[in-house]
Amino acid sequence: MVLLAVSYYLAARLGLGFRFQDSQIGVVWPANAVLLAALLLTPTRRWWVVLLATALAHAVAVASVTPAWRAAWQIAGNALFITSTALVLRRVPGLPLTFETRRQVFAYSAIAFVLPALYAFTTPAFVRALFHLELAPGSTLATTLLRVTLSNATVLLLVAPVVLLWAQFPVHRLKELSARRLWEAGAVVLSVLAVGMVAFGTGPEIAAGVPLLWVFPPLLWVAVRFGPVGASTALLGVAALSVWGTARQLGPFVLMTHADRVLSLQLFWIVMCTPVMLLAAVIWERERVEDALQAHRTQLAHLTRVATAGELSSSLAHELRQPLTAILANAEAAQVLLTRDGVDLREVRAILEDIAEQDKFAANVIGRLRSLLEKEEPHFEMLAMETTVGDALALSRGTVERSGVQVETQIAPGLPRVRGDPVQLLQVVLNLVVNGCESMSATPAPDRRLRLRVARQDSEYVEVLIADSGTGLPQGREDRVFEPFFTTKKTGLGLGLAIGRSIVSAHGGRLWGENNLLRGATFHLLLPMDHANDGPTAADRHRR
Predict the structure, then answer these.
(1) Which residues pair with 409 in a beta bridge?
(2) Which of 2, 6, 208, 221 has the lowest CB atom count within 10 Å?
(3) How far apart are the C-alpha atoms of 324 and 214, rounded to whole Å?
(4) Beta strand pairing call for 406-411 and 461-467
(5) What pLDDT, in 10s, does the model give residues 28-72?
(6) Is-cis flag, bond preceding 96, omega within 30?
(7) Of 14, 259, 272, which is closest to residue 146 (Cα–Cα)?
(8) Separation of alpha carbons 499 and 304, rounded Å
(9) Which 3 state secondary structure label does DSSP give 345?
(10) Whole-angstrom Cα distance, residue 229 to residue 223?
């Protein structure tokens, strides 16, 4: 509460320095922004403490320049105004107030105009002007009402979002910013300062030829790249520069009378705020939607991998049964040898080596299956597509043998790496291999051939080609197999190829299929090379 009282006091003293000439009306009253943020961040049962602390701070701040009766009126009026605003904000846009949705920005902007307009009728300046007890020279009742309304509206639009957002901002996120992000933030600050100094820090003759629209490009940059926190901070910075220049008789606003000058400043701030904050909200919403879609896509891909593993379960069981049976047989043989006199250590050593080899084989099968079933966020890394193809063939070996398919592989030497998620790309290749084997169930056994080729395609892509001699794709509707829930299998879900294409597209590649001239179909998987890591790929990738 001490920090709140000190912040309110400093904000009030700052507001006293910005008042209309020959008037008690402030151009902007930042103390109300501090009070509003405190109420929104404090449980309602503790509001009385906030109101008491700010009331005392207000009384001390204005004691030297405002009569006691007027200070009491201001304290009561501000408390009623800001409390009403906080209650409406809690109900309409809702808390937490992050300005990350268009609904929140629209609702907040509307409230920032409506409630100050209603409150203006209760202020000392308007009431005394209504009874001709206090009226600045050249002012009318309408101009007094407009000044009070804009004074409170601008503080809600300009200052309150900055105070509120930074009060909610987790400090640890600043430490997590990358060097590139920090450099970009520095460039944004410099661009805002540079444009602001040209627009508001030069003589009126020069500034008059500089369009105020120049300040919008850096503001739009901030809104797109740094969201509501960055946008609100940059808006306040531009407003501060405009006040600084105008106070020193610089910039375009000094070419008009004092009253018109202040009104123009306020209208300029209002015109800036809503579009920039709305753009930041739209970008933030779009990113959140994209993140949600990616999360759903990842979850669906995982479910498809689980379904694929279920289809391969019998084959995988057979894969594991062989090494486990061999391990058991070798262990029993070693036990028999150890019961004899004069144990042949070379024979025991050979048995143990065979057990170790069989154990490694089983571990590899389990490791590949575990990799396939991992449910993690996409993790892009440098990988060799020939290794991915090898893993897919190892996982599908039981299916290949059960289907009586002969596999032919052609791996070009010196292939460059690609950048991708190893689990997702393994899922794509495995699905294509399994589909190819299943499509040849009606093909005569001697003709069941699956051909896999990995090679460069032009100078930009690595191509994985998978060709079968099965039933082929629906004639004239080859691309329909990539539509969700379209399947030619009796028990298929129709999701494998659709998810596969979405995965490949997210990697910047292409996946399509075409019928062969005589029999079967060929699927082409094209992935962009990682030119920063061109060269042979002797080492296999490292799993996460």
Answers:
(1) 452
(2) 2
(3) 74
(4) unpaired
(5) 788 999 999 999 999 999 999 999 999 999 999 988 888 898 889
(6) yes
(7) 259
(8) 8
(9) helix
(10) 9
